[in-house]
Write a structure and sequence with these properties.
The structure is a single chain. The chain has 149 residues and is of the alpha+beta class. It has a single domain, classed as 2-Layer Sandwich (Heat Shock Protein 90). The chain is 32% helix and 28% strand. The protein has a five-stranded antiparallel β-sheet with strand order 1-2-3-5-4, with helices on one face. A hairpin with a 3-residue loop joins strand 2 and strand 3.
Length: 149
């Protein structure tokens, strides 16, 4: 579901579902949020929210190892969608263990740091969707003025 009919910039990332690679996702989120004019506090909140979502999605068996991936190991998928008014971050993994109970600490962190969060386990995927209202500032105008065409 696109977040905007007017604008749809999308960044897709797939990383191994192991602790070694997961810092890429909050870093990518922070880079996109910076470009969109989010404040430093808002950027750190988004980083923490993505970390919390990743923790919820990460299988119990995924422990940090020295950048080795086993054959057939699952990936964690991240889709950052930039709409005219909303930044949407969709994190998903192949369905395995059920997502933790909605009353857990990580879910509370997610709800506290974001405008909207929802989850679903449908078909072969478990998904967490985060929506954050974009700041209304001159930063967007500046970004548009400096865009490479």
């Amino acid at each position: 579901m696109p977040v905007s009919e007017e604008r749809e910039d999308v960044l897709l990332l797939d990383v191994p579902a192991t602790g070694d690679y997961l810092s890429v996702l909050p870093t990518a989120t922070a880079a996109v949020a910076t470009r969109l004019g989010f404040s430093l506090d808002e950027i750190e909140d988004l980083r923490a929210a993505v970390n919390a979502a990743v923790t919820l999605l990460l299988p119990e068996s995924a422990r940090p190892r020295p950048f080795r991936r086993r054959v057939g190991e699952d990936s964690l998928h991240c889709r950052l969608e930039v709409g005219a008014e909303i930044l949407q971050i969709v994190l998903s993994r192949p369905k395995g263990d059920p997502l933790p109970d909605p009353g857990t600490y990580q879910w509370q962190v997610l709800r506290a740091l974001t405008d909207e969060v929802e989850s679903e386990s449908e078909g072969a995927m478990s998904t967490i969707r985060i929506r954050q209202q974009r700041p209304s500032s001159e930063a967007d105008a500046e970004t548009e003025a400096h865009r490479i065409r």
